[in-house]
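Entry — protein

Goal — fold tokens:
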Amino acid sequence: MTNATEPTISFLGCGSMNEAILGGLLAGGISPAQVTATVRSAERAAELRRVHGITVLATAEDADANRIAAAGADVVIMGVKPVGTIALAREIASVLRPTTTVISVAAAISLAMLEAALPEGQPVIRSMPNTPSRLGRGVLSISAGTHADASLMAQARDILGSAGTVVDIPEKQVDALSAVSGSGPAYVFYLAEAMAAAGVELGLDPGLAKILATETVAGAGYMLAERDADPTALRRAVTSPNGTTEQAIATFDRLDLPVIIAAGALAASNRAQAITEELDS
């Protein structure tokens, strides 16, 4: 039996990002009885039912799966790839209740594009999450569409808050946010790879180097997650004058590592904007 005080939520598409949000929501106390998901294959549907205990519909078994899930939802979270998001919005448009909030987590799909594909007046919110959401440690932005009022934004904040830290931003900043937090986990993983490779170059066993790099990055992340943690202060605390760490940081500065990171983030932001233009053409 569903809880009337909780919204019914449908995840249309349950790839890595939507499942990350789903996992965070369930871990945060959302009842599985309130949740429906749709996927393509029957095998994937069976897996999600087994892992999460939710209702899952497969489009391979029922071509109307997305429409069925959307028709019964207070909140629809669209998590298909950007190239398929507008087609999905058009597919479900006729079955949505006027009060149903549509949340899109697709990169590069603007609010204007979504609103044009949905019924006039449909509340739409754009969110940009990242993969740590599945551990409840994600960052999830929300940007309000034309008809998403303060109460609907608060509802979205409550729903997504179980998956991590929710930040309100104007849509014009979404590409910049994506370049920092959306792509950011990959930067951190890349750093761990590079640290492990450096250990091997210094003569460490590859397996040991991987453990050292992985656990160091993970442990540093825990320290950053502490209340009022400041990355600059934490770095300085480890960097003793004339010590080994100071020499490493000085080398990074000489090689312009901050400039390299900024250039990468700019490239990510520019690519997001270009994809939006491609999909809207």
User: Anything to note?
Assistant: The chain has two domains: 9-174, 184-269. Residues 184-269 form a domain with the ProC C-terminal domain-like fold fold (CATH 1.10.3730.10). The chain has a mean pLDDT of 95.
